[in-house]
Structures are given as C-alpha cells and as structure tokens.
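Q: I'm teaching a short session on how sequence maps to structure, and I want students to see two examples side by side rather than one. Could you give me a first protein with its sequence written out and its structure tokens following it? Keep the formatting plain so it prints cleanly on a handout.
A: Of course. Example one:
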Amino acid sequence: MENINIIATLFGTLITLLLSIVAYFIKQLHTDFKSMEKDLVEVKTMALIIKTEFKSGNDLLNQKVEYLEKRVQTIELTILKNQDYEK
C-alpha cells in the first residue's frame, strides 16, 4: 500500500511539473503573440502613412501637370494669334 502512495505521489509530482512547464511555454507564446500584434499594428499604421503620403504626392503632381498643360495651351494660343497677325 505504501508503494502505491509513493508511485501516486511521484506521478502527481511529475504531472504537476510537466503542466508547469506547459503553462510557462503557453505564457511565453501569449507574450510573443501580444508583441507580434503590436508590431502588426505599427506596420499597418506605417503602411497607411506611406499610402497617404504617396496619394498626396500624386495629387500634387497631377495639379502641377494640369497647371502646366493650361500654361502650354495659353502659350500655344498666344503663338498662334501672333502668327495670324503677322500674316
């Protein structure tokens, strides 16, 4: 009977030790997932900032191109009118 108690105590201790090790690794895994989640949020934020900067840069370039197109048209009209007056 005493051997059964020793074996039960030994198995109980072993199971407790193994569960403690599993709990430790699960805690570490949870911590890693939390830090990965923070990193992912930072990456999404940076991607959104970069996207916004490119969009605003693109809009500014489009405005400049439109302005230059209008100036070229104005200059072309002026040149054509001058050519017509010279004839």
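Q: Perfect. Now a second example for contrast.
A: Example two:
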Amino acid sequence: MPKNKSHSGASKRFRVTGSGKIMRRRANKNHLLEHKPTKRTRRLTGDVELAPADTKKIKKLLG
C-alpha cells in the first residue's frame, strides 16, 4: 500500500499541538512592516488557534 502524504504547503503553514489543536500564524506580518504601527505588529506576533470551521479540512491535509 502507498503511504499517505501530507500536503507540503499546509505542513509549512500549520502545526498541531500536543492536545490536538491546530495553530496558525496571523496575517499582515510578512512584508511592508515599515509603515505599519509597532503596536499592530506586536499584536500580530505569536500563533493563534485555527477557526473551528477550518480544522477538519486542515487536519485532512496534514495527514
């Protein structure tokens, strides 16, 4: 039987915690940061839990 491959794009963007939650990065923290307020960029640091509506699809992609 062939092995089940995980989606390489999804595996770069999401990670699964020990308890099974899926974490994602926040948007707007990639480029053009010079004109964005520091207050905003600090708020966008760190991972957040994925929305419940998307978890089923992402879990399937991660394998």
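Q: What should students look for in example two?
A: Point them to this: The chain has three helices and three strands. Also worth mentioning: The two ends are 16 Å apart (CA to CA).
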